[in-house]
Amino acid sequence: MKITSVLIVVVAISMSSALFLGRPKVSDAGTPSPESRVSKTSDVSLEQQIVAKEREGLDALKAGNLERFANLTADDGVFVDAQGPASKATVVKNVAGFTLSEYSMENIQFVPISANSGLITYKIYEKGASHGKEFTAQAYVSSIWMERGSEWVCLFSQETAVRLPAK
Questions:
Q1: Structural domain count, the chain
Q2: Minimum mean pLDDT range among 12-21, 57-66, 84-93
Q3: Is the separation of the CB atoms in 106 and 117 below 8 Å?
Q4: Which of 5, 68, 102, 144 has the lowest tally of Cβ within 10 angstroms?
């Protein structure tokens, strides 16, 4: 399995586009309603929640808890890597032969989308094994998370493999 195929599995946790998100409510005057505004204080809280969920998904892969990983992934999620888009079913199937032994997230950035959703981007360093072959990889990840009911799910994730300098 190519490294890019492995990365889709990892990034899958990291996941549907703005089409799934809905727009902020707007009053008759054309300004966002109070319930759709996100204050700076709640931005920090929202960011912390989303980053924690991203880590929870990666930790589930590290622990081999595929059920928890799948539960953090939206059924209608879309995941994109160099192989193209993939569904939740495809990603969950691919992680069955995947083991993440180490990872770190660097340069995490956050953009709130609504009061209960946001986008994070970061660089991931990872080690593990895919279908019996050990790997190390680096990628840039973008993930959109949304709270649906009382559960957080990853709706969209895209990864771009880091291009290492030529030797």
A1: 1
A2: 12-21
A3: no
A4: 102
Residue 166 lies in a domain: no
For 89-99, what is each residue's pLDDT tens digit?
999 998 888 88
- Exposed, middle or buried: residue 165 (CB in 10 Å: 0-12, 13-18, 19+)? exposed
In-domain check, residue 53: yes
What end-to-end distance do the CA atoms of the chain give, in Å? 24
**pTM: predicted TM-score of the whole model, two decimal places:** 0.74
Provide, rounded to the nearest whole percent, the portion of the chain with pLDDT above 90: 62
Residue 123 CA, chain-centre distance (Å), reads 12
Instruction: Give yes or no for a contact between 154 and 50, defined as CB atoms under 8 angstroms apart.
Output: no
What is the C-alpha separation between 102 and 58, in angstroms, rounded? 9
The answer to whether the Cα torsion of 5, 152, 115, 51 is positive or negative is negative
Q: For residue 130, what are the domain limits?
A: 3-20+34-161
